[in-house]
Write a structure and sequence with these properties.
The protein is an all-alpha fold. The protein is built from 5 helices and no strands. The N and C termini lie far apart (60 Å). About 13% of the residues have low confidence.
């Protein structure tokens, strides 16, 4: 009996660990920064290391510090088609959207 219970626990823990590794990490700031650099830096200033951007669009820091910016508002914006604006449709996955939103929010200045 002890062998069967021990094996069942071992099997469960092994499957749980494999499932956790298979799930992409969401809300990864570093992954969001990489996506933003690749897709958004042609127009937006996405981070402090970037030297040039279009002055007609807000920086990611400015977006992060708007009072109306939340994780939900960023996700909704990034999921919506942008055919009415000059911004391209990026067709990001849900995980990529979460990562970009997490990166943008990481740029928010702490309020005192």
């Amino acid at each position: 009996m002890k062998v069967h219970i021990g094996f069942a626990i071992f099997a469960f823990l092994t499957l749980a660990a494999a499932a956790a590794e298979a799930q992409p990490k969401s809300n990864s700031i570093d992954a969001g920064h990489q996506i933003a650099t690749r897709w958004c830096s042609h127009c937006h200033l996405v981070g402090p290391e970037q030297m040039r951007a279009t002055d007609a669009v807000p920086t990611f820091a400015a977006i992060a510090n708007k009072p109306t910016t939340t994780a939900s508002s960023l996700r909704a914006f990034l999921q919506a088609p942008h055919w009415a604006s000059r911004m391209p449709d990026l067709h990001l996955s849900r995980t990529e959207i979460n990562n970009v939103a997490a990166y943008i929010l990481s740029l928010r200045k702490p309020s005192h």
